[in-house]
Amino acid sequence: MPPRSAAATVMTIGRLSAESGCKVPTIRYYEQIGLMPEPDRSEGNQRQYSRRHLERLRFIRHSRDLGFTLDDIRELLTLAAHPEAPCEEADAIARRHLRLVRDRIDRLRKLEQELEHMAACCHGPTVRDCRVIEILSDHGKCLSDGHPPLD
Amino acid sequence: MPPRSAAATVMTIGRLSAESGCKVPTIRYYEQIGLMPEPDRSEGNQRQYSRRHLERLRFIRHSRDLGFTLDDIRELLTLAAHPEAPCEEADAIARRHLRLVRDRIDRLRKLEQELEHMAACCHGPTVRDCRVIEILSDHGKCLSDGHPPLD
DNA sequence: GCAGACTCTATAGCTTCTGGAGATATAGGG
DNA sequence: CCCTATATCTCCAGAAGCTATAGAGTCTGC
Fold first, then answer.
1. Is B59 domain-assigned?
2. Is B133 in the same domain as B99?
3. Where's the HTH merR-type domain (chains A, B) (predicted)?
4. Is residue A77 domain-resident?
5. CA dist., res. A105 & res. B64, Å (int)
6. CA 20 to 30 Å from A38, out of A26, A60, A69, B33?
7. A69, B139, A16: which is closest to A25 by C-alpha?
């Protein structure tokens, strides 16, 4: 009997979606931007995917979950296809991304403090006595001087 | 002599930009989406801003820096215009935002660990021995089961 | 009165998808 | 063979929050 899991040699796009966790329009989008190769088509013009497609898509999905950009992923995919190449580049991408993530954490922490401070400053029942609005209006009432952009 | 700082009663858009830290196209964009009111125009059809515009724009800018969405800011601006209204709502917006920020910090921390783990796993000189690609290919090699979406 | 800086409008692009419209394909049951 | 329900097809628009460009007009200082 034919296998019921991802072991099926041919998948529709819906199946690929279920197996990979990517939504159907997202898969078509990835194909459109050249991140996924164009699959074969059935007689009725429907996409037919193989396990190789699934693997690639899972790689993409996983990398996206880890916050890599599509451009990063494009590069990582190229690297993955050349096992003999030096891995410095892949490593560099990962490390750069790690720096980015740490940076974002730092900035978000500052923000967290600022917001805690703000929320703690609400003193009266009306907007007039509420510091939230006031602090937003006047940067000088902030804990820190500058808020770096979040992204 | 006419004042040289923001005390000028009338500003061009470039001046408003410099005083607020918002770029010129951003200011026009805010006007377009109704976040900033349409200012008077000079005879030559150029926008003329008052200090009230500057205050509003600074409020917006500061809130953006703190990560509030434009929709949040719209609401906060409305609230700010009604000092007699109860401040619960402003407070609620700030607290909701605080929760959001904390959530993002948590998720980014997990990511950080994952990436550290990954980077530490690079063992060989070629992609073949580099775990970065391998881990990306195979979710099972991850520290955690699921990576929640970052946003 | 002219160079150069600034501003105007309108429109398109960025990133990473997501959703809808309207048409076709396929699978399962009678 | 037909019917229906679901899945798929293409194409296009929209989301958030800007940013950039083109081509024209305006203002300022010397």
1. yes
2. yes
3. 10-79
4. no
5. 17
6. A69
7. A16
Q: A101 is in which domain, residue-wise?
A: 89-141
Among A23, A60, A101, A117, the strongest candidate for a mutation testing the B interface, having the largest count of B CBs within 10 A, is A101
Query: Could you give the number of structural domains in chain A?
Result: 2
- A146 found inside a domain: no
Identify whether residues A53 and A106 lie together within a single domain. Answer: no
Strand duo A40-41 + B47-48: pairing: unpaired
* A4 pLDDT above the threshold of 70: no
In whole angstroms, what is the distance from residue A148 CA to residue A104 CA? Answer: 10
Of A62, A94, A104, which is closest to B139 when you measure between CB atoms?
A62
Q: Which of A38-42, A89-93, B142-146 has the lowest average pLDDT?
A: B142-146
Nucleotide nearest to A73 (CA to C1'): C16
Give residue-wise pLDDT tens across range B44-79.
999 999 999 999 999 999 999 888 889 989 988 988
- Which region, left, alpha or beta, applies to residue A85 given φ > 0 means left and ψ of -120 to 50 means alpha? beta
Q: Provide the 8-state DSSP code for B39.
A: P
Verify if strand D has an atom below 7 Å from the CB of B88: no
Inter-residue contact A62 to A75 (CB < 8 Å): no
CA distance A26 to A48: 16
Q: Are residues B66 and B13 in the same domain?
A: yes
Q: Out of A40, A70, A100, pick the residue that ends a domain.
A: A70
pTM for this entry: 0.80
- Chain B residues near residue A80 by CB distance under 8 angstroms: 127, 133, 136-137
DSSP A75-126: HHHHHHT-TTSBTHHHHHHHHHHHHHHHHHHHHHHHHHHHHHHHHHT--SSB
Does residue B124 fall inside a structural domain? yes
Query: Could you say which nucleotides of strand D lie within 7 A of any protein CB atom?
Result: 7-11, 16-21, 25-27
Q: In this structure, are residues B124 and A148 in contact, taking their beta carbons and an 8 Å threshold?
A: no
